[in-house]
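To: structure desk
From: M.T.
Subject: fold request, one chain
Message: Could you run this one when you get a chance? Sequence is below, nothing fancy, just the single chain.
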Amino acid sequence: MPLVRIDALPAGTDRLDALGRAVHDALVETIDIPPNDLFQVLTSHDGSTSTLRYADFLDVPRDDDVVFVAITMRAGRPPEVKQAMYRRISELVEKYAGTDPRNVLVTVTENASPDWSFGHGLAQYLQSVGSLERPSMARGSAELLAEDLLDGGCGDRVVAGAGLREDL
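Reply: Done. Structure tokens follow.
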């Protein structure tokens, strides 16, 4: 369950939507999150009351089309998967929003299962398998979650796909 924050200089609703779709589609494709695992904060900065500051760090020339993408997700994905994610985000941001890939800065902050609450003041990833199951939850989802977590997976696909977001 990644939480994504996207910041861009003056961006109307169409550009913000395109940026959000690009990042979400890239996450679905590269880190295997379910399509309904969507948690984003999209912010347009007007350049005067709020702005983005940037430089040509590492000799990457940026301009006012710059986009900052901050992704918070559970730890466990190898560097090659993250590299594919960064690449795909840049490709889709260019395709959907017309932003040059050099203007796409992506950061990842990783955390652990205890660091997430999907609502109701519960840390759902820490609940026992039996307590994960809700009457409206697809049968078997709790068992799949337990199996995924025991196998060292992140559990994102099972939990988000199981309807916890809507049911809790």
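Reply (cont.): The beta strands are 3-8, 40-44, 67-74, 104-111. Let me know if you need anything else for the meeting.
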